Amino acid sequence: MLFNSHVFIFGFLPIVFIVYFIFRKIDLVAGAKIWLVFSSLFFYSWWNPVYLPILLGSIITNFLFGKTIEKVSYKKIILTIGIIFNVALLGYFKYVDFFIANVNMIFETNFSLLHVALPLAISFFTFQQIAYLVDTYKGEAKKYSFLNYALFVTFFPQLIAGPIVHHKEMMPQFETLSARFVRAKNVVLGSFIFFIGLFKKTVIADTFAIYASDGFGRPETLTLIEGWIVSLSYSFQIYFDFSAYSDMAIGLALLFNIKLPINFNSPYKALNIQDFWRRWHMTLGRFLTKYIYIPLGGNRISESRTLFNIMIVFGISGFWHGAGWTFVVWGLLHGVASVIHRLWRKLAIDMPKWLAWFITFQFVNVAWVFFRAESFQDALHVLKAMVGLQGISIPPYLESLFQQIQVIPYEVTERFFVGDLYEFHKIIVLLIVFLFISVFAKNSIERLQSFRPNWKTALFIGFVTVVSILHLTRVSEFIYFNF
């Protein structure tokens, strides 16, 4: 079920909300928790009920692993088995065809692909439960009941695409569920940020998706200006798409008086790649740092080992996002950039902020090409277009200008990029406007923190809500549903 759908907004959410607080009002805390678990499982299985046994099996198995680790003396063995179980589960459903295809290519074999369907959210709930097992082994996890644990994993606002929540920040909230009644403040704040997120998804991200999909669908035909339009369109599509989901998840949880961690904080304001990753998918970065980077030695051993650890972490990050070499390359590119940034800092050379921002943003934009492209060939076509190696096409009214620049070969075309000149003008304006917004404007979390209930806010959220709902006719998945 999608957050940006009529059935969710006008059906699922109101029913779940009302019944939950009926249970809370009559002081049936266990009933309220069971209702949330049941509702979350229904939400999850709406897409495809076949995935439900996988999720349930993972929850039950990991809970039993955790309980066993608490009781036995051979904790490390059980932890190892538990981690292997989770990695194997993720590896089979997400990566088995990728490995088979590569074996066939390298060894010239002809093993048949299994065409295993990817269960929704498996990357997210696997990482959450690995963290739980590791912390249980370290004695950092409390003894949770199965009901609270199941709710921790399945809570529908964060189930499909994060944030990757940690048991320490969520389980105490599920243990107590102290708010017995509907809190008007949380309802207002939750609705405020939810509908901002819905607007980002339905109006902004899905608009940029039209141009990005068109360009990446025919990368070999792109020329210089078109290549930049396509790459920037995808950069803003994924920015507002992921920001939208993060906002909507926080808003939905607030309705139930639950606080989720912030997962997105204006990453295009970053002045270096380290700053970018402190702002983008923040809970993934937190997981990779605590459960992979630090156990590998972090920065405690030697400088060369630190740089190696950085590359390992970013390689895993890329592979976590998708079963394809383009994702691995995307991750390694960010690893190389992080290594360069670390070495640059040692030189203690100050860079103007505008230049630092420009380099960071352009690197991120170029790296997104590999993230989005279906193949290396497609990615190279887009990158070649961006540097003019696939020619330059211009609309007719720019011909007189280009005639004065005779050293640049170009072709005049009536149909420029998508549709006509109107579409060209439209996308250029959209790119400029939303570049400005993403770099200079307050983000939704900042607006949430400074929220003031007044007529201006009411008009703003009313406008955002109406426009968003009117755009629900073109329902689309969130990008991170694929991961």
Automatic annotation (TrEMBL):
Signal peptide interval: none
Locations listed in the record: Cell membrane
Keywords tagged on the record: Acyltransferase, Cell membrane, Membrane, Transferase, Transmembrane, Transmembrane helix
Main localization category: membrane
UniProt topology in membrane: Multi-pass membrane protein
Name of this protein: MBOAT family O-acyltransferase
InterPro entries membership: Ac/AlaTfrase_AlgI/DltB, AlgI, MB_O-acyltransferase, MBOAT_fam
Regions that span the bilayer: 6-23, 50-65, 77-93, 113-134, 146-167, 187-210, 307-333, 354-371, 427-445, 457-481
Keyword Transmembrane: yes
Protein family (similarity comment): Belongs to the membrane-bound acyltransferase family.
